[in-house]
């Protein structure tokens, strides 16, 4: 039986990326709900078998400037209260944390580029074990306080909180394992102003993406495949 995956998308090129293939292989039909479209967070948050909340270049705390954030957080919170499978990536991870009552705040730095994670003991026992020793793409300036009842799965040399899980159904990743090489140039152009302000070496970032993108994609597919296999659908 086909399962449904709804992805909340904030920037068109920040899509499911390399996660799309393992989701399809696991029997999920994929649908997007895009910011600015009439259907964004307009449906039943309990209806999809899986909700994925994608990244974007805004802060969770910027609700006055971006009113959709309040509606989106309520949508996510309703789903989390029901214990249904939910995956957050970068902004999505922060929205999941906020929906659970945690504080989201600027780190004071821009962590942009490829670097390996340090997995906690819980992370090593989780699907994130496939990322051990694999440089992942970091691209954020905010972070979150670990939600109550969550397990911290990973950190980096710059930011302590990089991933958390609550039970088997909630996974939040502050980094970008899904960002495949195929859309790298769209990311670089789409976030040109942020990259320039942070004085990121574009040549170095592009080279790292070229050199590390394949290994990251392979590991990311393994992470998603294992996580999907252990979900408790509860529906």
Please tell me about this protein's structure.
This protein is an alpha/beta fold and 235 residues long. 31% of the residues lie in helices and 25% in strands. The strands form two sheets. Strands 2-1-3-4-10-9-8-6 form an eight-stranded mixed beta sheet. A two-stranded antiparallel ribbon has the order 5-7. A hairpin with a 3-residue loop joins strand 9 and strand 10 (170-173). Helix 2 (68-81) crosses helix 3 (91-99). The radius of gyration is 16 Å and the shape is globular. The mean pLDDT is 96.
Radius of gyration: 16 Å
Through-space gap between termini: 13 Å
What are the segments in which pLDDT stays under 50 over at least 5 consecutive residues? none
Strand line-up of the largest beta sheet: 2-1-3-4-10-9-8-6
CATH architecture group name: 3-Layer(aba) Sandwich
The level-1 CATH class: Alpha Beta
Rounded mean pLDDT is: 96
Instruction: Summarize the biggest pleated sheet.
Output: 8 strands, mixed
What can be said about this structure in brief?
By secondary structure, the chain is an alpha/beta fold. It has helices at residues 20-25, 68-81, 91-99, 121-124, 184-190, 192-197, 202-229, and strands at residues 3-9, 28-34, 50-53, 86-89, 104-115, 118-119, 136-144, 151-155, 163-166, 170-173.
Key features of this structure:
235 residues, Rossmann fold, 7 helices, alpha/beta, 10 strands, 8-stranded mixed β-sheet
